[in-house]
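Lecture notes, unit on binding sites. The following record was shown on slide 14. It pairs a sequence with 2'-deoxycytidine-5'-monophosphate.
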Amino acid sequence: MIAIDGPAASGKSTVGRLLAEKLNFLYLDTGCMYRAVTWTALQHEIDLNDETAVTQLAHDIQMEIFPAKGEEDGRHYTVHVDGQDITWGLRTPAVDANVSQVSSYLGVRQEMVKRQRAFGQRGAVVMVGRDIGTVVMPDAPLKLFITASAEERARRRTRDRSDQGHTADYADILADVQRRDEIDSNRQHSPLRPADDAIRIDSTAQPPAAIVDAILALIEQNVAISIKVK
Ligand code: DC
């Protein structure tokens, strides 16, 4: 089990996915679960200020996340909600704008954490999110906390969004990244913060592949971690 946390667009998902590939571990990006609840709530026109209704929805939806199977649209995994493929709906500006609110609700978090732990029972996994090292898997033998400057993260998100054919304004995206950092770091339940024993990595000037190599070297060097990680 490897836990990776960090703020939006810090590179944690890319690092986590590459690491899982190299180690032949399962991979779970937990952000997509909060996004799936948000997308579905928007679809059903549920009032996002209605915590009870959003929490009920989080319990009710059937969610499946599995590796991409040869789709050629750049996806890294596929998400189904109630049997429908909603993978690309998860990255829309409407979801970006509302996911922090949805993920601030305790009942939503409890349900997602339960599902994440169940996923962790399937085998060795690299799990990526905000609270994996602190709440979901506090016993993970390797915990990483990946950050980058807000400006660099906004640049990355702007590039990703325009690569996907969406309009992307850097200033708007920077404001959204900063707003989400603020909400995610200051929320009452499971705020974004590194676990005490997490290794902190700044990805501002380092490409994901270099970070992955450094982590693999660390695992190699530290036999204790290596044994436990497997
Ligand atoms: O990593 P991301 O941008 O896809 O995450 C979307 C939102 O979900 C983010 O604003 C915070 C929330 N989130 C969370 O609260 N806990 C997690 N483990 C993962 C994501």
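Take-home: The mean pLDDT is 92.
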